[in-house]
Amino acid sequence: MWQDEITAAVLSRQEVSRYLRGGGGETARQAAQRVHGYLHELRTTQRYRMYRALQHPLYPILRKIDRRQEHVERAQAAVGAGRRVIYASNHKSHLDYLVQPIVLDDHRVRPPVIAAGINLFGGPLGCLHRHVTGAIPIRREMRDPAYLATLKAYVSEVLRRHDLFLYPEGGRSYSGELKPFKTGLLHAAAQARRADAVVVPVAVAYDFVLEDAVLARQRVKRRQRPFALEVAEMARCAVGYQSRAVVSFGAPIPLGACDPDCRRSMVQLARRLRSEIGRLGKVLPAALVAAAMRPSLGRRELEERIDQLLEILRLTGANLDVRTGREALDAAAEPLAMRGIIVIQGDRHRIRQRGVLRYYSRSIHHLLHDRGRSALTH
């Protein structure tokens, strides 16, 4: 079986085998048991026919989301040319794990294996991730060098057989901002040393993130909560929920140009990906209204502030969904009011949920220059 081949390949790697000898008060047997335990946890299987069939039981959720794509032909071309593809995306919602792979599947792009937080692997959903979708459970806060070496070696070996979808932010953004990218899994991909490997930047944007109020309330992730609790919260948020999800694909970046033995090279790749994904992300009306909003504004003044913001964003090369402040307000004001985020009284627009509004406003902070932010304060 290919999993046994991967296990043998991982254990034979120099960076892993040195931990098998023990040391630091640990016997060789204890060290081997620990590494084998990590490998057993990482094992994943993708069953493509069952994977596609999952869309039917998930229909009650997916019907609430109008899936859109931009430039999926870039992914199609990379796969069609026989490339090994690593998709690197921002991370907005737990729905990302459903929406983005299904967008690929809708366009007959072979499904990648997904690197996902281990909190998603409890209960029945965890079985689906491990045995159907082919997700790899990642312990993001683990600092054990043996675990990190085993994880990187496993990912590197998986890439010999599958494409990979990863989230370099390391988890959802609780503040709404595009977080700094981590290099761990990118480094693991580069260690595969495949001349045919490319990184395809991907950005996902929602009119409204399903769990926006939950994330905005915390703003900073302080501890890992049980996934069952998060699912229950999302189920409550799903009542009346409707949104577009826009998945945008960037031009492939050859991974062979990056040196996995040079930290500077990997950091430069992470920064380049963050910059490109930041520009790829669709700037949707709710984010524009949120960024321009003040405690109380008339419609005319709010339109003018959004128009100023759009002028700044055009200079940054942002991927805009609307051209004018009027279009943005027409599209977003009523849905924002229906979600209880703002209140509309006649001509006046007032803030009701300041934390949620800031969450959406921060989603475009990476695009704004200092001169742009100051321009909006006058």
Features:
378 residues, Glycerol-3-phosphate (1)-acyltransferase, Arc Repressor Mutant, subunit A, 3 domains, 3-stranded antiparallel β-sheet, 48% helix
Short description:
About 50% of the residues lie in helices and about 15% in strands.
What report would you give on this structure?
- The chain has 18 helices and 13 strands.
- It is of the alpha/beta class.
- It folds into 3 domains: 2-38, no CATH class; 45-280, Glycerol-3-phosphate (1)-acyltransferase (3-Layer(aba) Sandwich); 283-376, Arc Repressor Mutant, subunit A, CATH 1.10.10.
- The strands form 3 sheets. Strands 1, 2, 3, 4, 5, 6, 7 and 8 form an 8-stranded mixed β-sheet that branches.
- Helix 3 (28-42) crosses helix 9, helix 11 (212-218) packs across helix 17 (354-362) and helix 14 crosses helix 16 (325-338).
- The radius of gyration is 22 Å and the shape is elongated.
- Mean pLDDT is 87; it is low at 370-378.
Q: Which fold name fills CATH's third level, the topology of the largest domain?
A: Glycerol-3-phosphate (1)-acyltransferase
Number of strands: 13
Separation of termini?
65 Å
Number of alpha- plus pi-helical segments: 18
CATH superfamily of the largest domain: Glycerol-3-phosphate (1)-acyltransferase
Q: Which architecture name of the largest domain does CATH use? A: 3-Layer(aba) Sandwich
Classify the secondary structure makeup into a structural class.
alpha/beta
Major beta-sheet overview: 8 strands, mixed
- Mean pLDDT across all amino acids: 87
Q: What does the radius of gyration come to?
A: 22 Å
Beta-strand residue fraction: 15-25%
Report low-confidence residues grouped into runs of 5 or more: 370-378
